[in-house]
Predict the structure.
Amino acid sequence: MMRLPLGFLNLFLRLMEKPHLRRARDVPKMRRRFARQARWLFSDPPFATYLPDHLKHQGHDVPALWAQAGSPKNDGVILYLHGGAYVIGGSITHRAMLARLSALTGLRTILPDYRMAPEHPFPAAIKDARTAYCALLARGYQAEQIVLGGDSAGGGLMLALLHVICTENLPRPGAVFAFSPWTDLTLSGDSIASNAKSDPFLPADRMPELRDMYLGNADPSEPRASPLFGDFTDAPGVFIQVGDTEILLDDSRRMLAALQAQGVDARMDIWPNTPHVWQMFQGYLVEADKALADVAAFINRSLKS
């Protein structure tokens, strides 16, 4: 498979994708475009298989997609919440990356298609995330064998789910990881302004609009929306990856500090010059393959401990 130089990817994103994200307004069209792009931008690993399902709990039903590569070697599962600013993305856009993680960890992975804005504003997404987690528990998965993951808005949603798990005293998962999570919907992170030019992908000037599309009239400091302000009592280990040029860099930095201040065994790797959620370019980008290998090693250590 042809390798993609990091500099070329950043140039492509800066010249093509960032201008599009800055001007795009038609949400259904944005969703269709992202789904089309995923078919040729994101590489399925060998022997990848995908199986639709529904995660049901207490009368709630969330469609989802199982993704794996080869035969699972472990009893655990990765519950992954996709990114896309709460308005685009889905299991189809992120399934290749999760199939790769399946191959690296020997775990099955499942991607809920949670409800998105503007049709379904907050708190629909966090309710669906909770339903998905509780459905896995109801199916017999042991909490310590469940890994929570997510990227960007999905990373923030996953950490909000962790807050819900901790405050409702639900069984704690075995491990947690996040790629460039959007953790602060008050938009108070310094890097939103300081990295506005250096970020090759995300346009900082769209953040308030997308935030409001998701939140409506809800309080942006509500921990189920902004996990930066959440309660993580007795949470498991958390691993965060983020790029140093991202506008969401400080969302990760401050999230790490908040977790550690509450006694959580949290760590973060800051990667030089990598774009937002570069891990999705696994199979093409060396940095993506290395990042996923690091996450897999963290997961394998966590589930064995």
About this structure: Residues 286-304 form the longest helix (19 residues). The chain has one domain: 6-304. The longest strand covers residues 48-57.
